[in-house]
Amino acid sequence: MELSSNVSTDSEGVLPFEMDHLPDLVLKKCEEELNETSEKKTKVLALRYMIEDDDIVSGINFEEDFLVQYLRHSKYDVNKALKHIRNYVNLRKKRSYMFESLPDNLLSEQLSNNFLSIMPKRSPDGCVIVLLQVGKWNLKQLSFDKFMQLNMMLYTQLLRDEMNQINGIRAIYDCKGTSFAFLQLCKPQNLYIYNHLLVNCLPTRVKGLHIINESFVVRLVWPVMKQLMSEKLRNRVHFHSNSGDLFEYFPPHVLPTQYNGELSDTHLEEGLSWIRKVNNEHKDNPVEGQPNFY
Predict the structure, then answer these.
(1) pTM score > 0.90 for this model?
(2) From 135's CA, which of 77, 110, 115, 277 has a CA 20 to 30 Å away?
(3) Interatomic CA distance for residues 112 and 32, integer angstroms
(4) Mapping DSSP to helix (H, G, I), strand (E, B) and coil, where does residue 59 land?
(5) What are residue 61's phi and psi, to 5 degrees?
(6) 209: how many CB neighbours lie within 10 A of its CB?
(7) Smallest Cα–Cα separation from 279: which of 108, 82, 42, 119?
């Protein structure tokens, strides 16, 4: 059971997805779990000095908020933070297309059937909840490269919220309806770049990956995917035989009605509107990074 939380919550036990401040208990969590202290500025300066001497990232005047994302992710280990920033810049050089925003019409088409959703409420531990209904992926409209663009945009923008930097994310992958055509996308090189992006390049704290409606495609892909993951991440992957199992990790009021939760499509529109908004902001996303939302 993972419903216990050390994050300040509302009367239902959860916080909303969109925030405009950090609650005191989240600040305390940042200090206790991520080693953030009054010496934060000193660590940022130390990281800048290392960047200046690095052959890959020297000459880039990174946004301070951007550097703090990586320091928090590495629990203020400056060397680990630099390694991830190097990975990010290298990926940006090699696959620059992944860092572009999606055309508005293509994004709208993908969001219209709830292929990708962000829940309007957080998990009890403060994580943002991302829902990907893999079986609704229109492979004729959205290539794997465009899918990677979508992921880069989504997680880059999510990380501009300090709540997500500190608490992390929980992703639900609903594999109902996945077909043989989808299996053809799951080449080892594609699985590698997906894992590399989320784990080695972006400072994403992945607190849980929840697989529901497991299909034959998942059973074929998982043995390959788990070899690419660290042991720590593998231990955070949870397979659920039915929607009721999700309640071990998520209370009903943070889940859609299709999983026997309480959120209607009207509730989900809030997250969809946010995705459309930040996709436009992502058009101005430079290699130096963008400031936090608040």
Answers:
(1) yes
(2) 277
(3) 41
(4) coil
(5) -90, 85
(6) 20
(7) 108
